[in-house]
TrEMBL record:
Organism, as annotated: Nannocystis radixulma
Keyword flag Ion transport: yes
UniProt xrefs under InterPro entries: CASTOR/POLLUX/SYM8-like, CASTOR/POLLUX/SYM8_dom
Protein name: Potassium transporter TrkA
Keywords of this entry: Ion transport, Membrane, Transmembrane, Transmembrane helix, Transport
């Protein structure tokens, strides 16, 4: 290889210097300007061409340097020069050199500012936040999640959320502004991969109060979540502090591995059972979805766990009446045991904490003022009717179908039947994977659930309950919700023509379609993405809520039911809610609220649901109204 020439070496060094960035480029221009001025001043001094001053003496070298700098900065200074033609032409050359240098400087500065703005747009600067919530990933659930976090942090001045995702920062900022509007919570976005340690360092995990790992869409979602948890765990170990982690998991096979990575304290949410349990429970009880939405949303009444020393020595039954603005669900004992609810005659011990539904954490106070119960307002105490076999119609196939059928089997009486209608032709074998169902017989019929001819041939009015699942495979979210609405419209028309009323519960993916779908008159909607976001936000604020929700949604033990009000109080009687609490307590149940049938389709009145009402408020419950209770069956 031939030896590089001096010109090539000089050009190589110049290119390297210019490639170092704006600072190096400005330094190069400064050197060029300085050399130009020094050379010019030296030539004028040595040649004797420098002009004379007011005192008749030649202008000094330092003065020439200053004059040259002024010509380089301001070409207009040429007009004020006085001297012979040689001096004037030399000054003109300095001005031309200055025009070149400062034009280049303006270009360099413009490019530099452009680079700064581009770096800001890319979101690559370090986040300096403390006690903030970190969200890793960007999915369709982010809108509901941010809304709930803003509600949860409304009373925390300076609350902030930091989002790290492989998404354009400007696009994320625009969406955040659209979702939150003027909410005081500060949201900072950064572009990067949660799997890359250098990018994770941008969000300051060591100072975060909680970290939420969003599950992306697609078949490999759990793989991405697991790798993210590994990256977060390693970053936390190096920072010397493991943050509270909440993650969405879609497969129980991944759950055990994730536990090994982040430990038992992390809030890992297995979403298919969560959605399936709520869907099944709601499908059998109209209005329950509104109850769960209220419980899980920070904009209404939610669950709190607090120490209440004033209850020491009181039994749980007595404590039910000790609150005017809160409703008890259970007790966290001093030994860490969770009782939902405990035996009604169990006394509170020092260190026990109540699990209560209340408007806010500062409203869980012992302020009850119970009034004497009017015995004539109570309904006769008789057992609830024995469960009978049910016929359930399930329309559509989704990833939740197997889980839905198994959850349904845990609630229905022996001899119940389920008819599944979907487009899958080989579904029978897959539905029985993992063992036969104990109480339910499954039948499968192939057909398009949006086809009116298929629905007309199902004897829709003969079923006790109807579940419509979102068909997501091979379809967009909007297309799946559109098919659900078409199916609901057909079902309501069929039932209207037969003069029958069958409860219909459907799964929707996008909460924005909820109001549009209301024209179908379905009894309940389960908004999958919103439900998951609500649970994630609750657990990110309080890690112990995860176990409480698991108890409420499990078929074992006590669950939330909406039971006929006539089983508790006399229809039409003018009572306060303390009377309802007493009626439920005599059955070993906890009254949490009620639902008025007259407002069951009115979204402005929460579809008739009043959760945790003031116990002294008067109410009249009719024969068609229901009482929301925590009961075993």
């Amino acid at each position: 290889m031939p030896r590089a020439t001096f010109k090539q070496r000089l050009r190589y060094r110049f290119d390297n210097a210019m490639a170092r960035g704006v600072g190096s480029q400005i330094a190069m221009l400064a050197i060029v300007t300085l050399v130009l001025i020094l050379v010019t001043s030296t030539v004028l001094t040595v040649s004797g061409l420098s002009p004379h001053g007011a005192d008749g003496e030649r202008v000094s070298f330092g003065r020439l340097v200053w004059v040259g700098l002024m010509h380089a900065i301001d070409p207009g200074a040429v007009g004020s020069d006085v001297g012979d033609w040689a001096f004037l032409f030399i000054m003109l050359a300095v001005s031309f050199g200055g025009i070149f240098v400062f034009s280049a400087l303006i270009g360099v500065l413009t490019g530099g500012f452009g680079d700064i703005l581009e770096r800001l747009r890319k979101g690559r600067s370090m986040v300096i936040e403390r006690d903030h919530t970190v969200i890793l990933g960007w999915t369709g659930k982010i809108h509901a999640l941010l809304t709930e976090l803003a509600e949860a942090n409304a009373n925390r001045p300076g609350a902030s959320v930091v989002i790290l995702a492989e998404h354009d920062k400007v696009a994320m900022d625009d969406e955040v502004r659209t979702v939150l509007g003027d909410a005081p919570m500060r949201v900072v976005t950064r572009t990067g991969s949660p799997l890359v340690r250098r990018d994770l360092d941008l969000v300051n995990l060591g100072e975060a109060r909680s970290v939420i790992v969003m599950s992306p869409d697609g078949p490999e979602a759990d793989t991405v979540v697991l790798k993210t948890l590994l990256a977060v765990s390693k970053a936390g170990a190096q920072a010397g502090k493991q943050p509270h982690v909440v993650a969405e998991i879609k497969s129980d096979k991944t759950l055990s591995v994730a536990r090994m990575v982040v430990g038992d304290a992390a809030g890992l949410i297995l979403t298919p059972p969560l959605i399936s349990r709520v869907l099944v429970q709601t499908g059998r009880q109209s209005g329950l979805s509104v109850v769960y939405t209220e419980l899980l949303s920070f904009s209404g009444d939610e669950i709190y766990i607090q120490t209440q020393p004033q209850l020491a020595g009181k039994t749980f039954r007595e404590a039910l009446f000790a609150y005017e603005d809160s409703a008890l669900l259970g007790v966290y004992t001093a030994a860490g045991e969770r009782l939902m609810p405990p035996p009604f005659d169990r006394p509170f011990e020092p260190g026990d904490q109540v699990i209560a539904i209340s408007r806010d954490d500062d409203t869980v106070i012992v302020n009850g003022r119970p009034t004497p119960v009017a015995e004539d307002a109570l309904a006769p105490l008789h057992p609830h009717a024995a469960p009978r076999p049910e016929r359930t119609l399930v329309l559509g196939e989704s990833q939740l179908l197997q889980q839905v059928l198994r959850e349904l089997d845990a609630y229905v009486a022996p001899g119940s039947t389920v008819l599944v209608v979907c487009e899958a032709r080989h579904l029978d074998a897959r539905l029985t994977e993992g063992g036969e169902l104990a109480h339910t017989t499954i039948q499968v019929r192939v057909g398009d659930v949006t086809d009116r001819g298929v629905l007309d041939g199902l004897d829709v009015p003969g079923f006790d309950n109807i579940l419509v699942l979102a068909e997501t495979e091979g379809r967009t979210q909007e297309m799946a919700d559109s098919r659900t609405m078409i199916t609901l419209l057909h079902l309501r028309d069929i039932l209207r023509r037969h003069g029958k009323a069958v409860p219909i519960t459907s799964e929707m993916l996008d909460g924005q379609n909820r109001e549009l779908a209301a024209v179908t008159e379905a009894d309940d909607f389960i908004i999958s993405n919103t439900l998951v976001s609500l649970v994630v936000s609750q657990i990110s604020e309080n890690r112990r809520i995860a176990a409480v929700l698991d108890d409420l949604l499990s078929p074992d033990g006590h669950e939330i039911y909406l039971k006929p009000a006539r089983d508790y109080v006399q229809p039409g009687a003018d009572i306060d809610f303390y009377t309802v609490v007493e009626a439920a307590a005599r059955r070993g149940e906890v009254a949490l609220g009620y639902r008025l049938a007259a407002h069951a389709h009115d979204p402005e009145r929460a579809y008739g649901v009043a959760l945790n009402p003031r116990k002294s408020a008067r109410v009249r419950l009719g024969a068609g109204d229901r009482v929301v209770v925590l009961a075993e069956r």
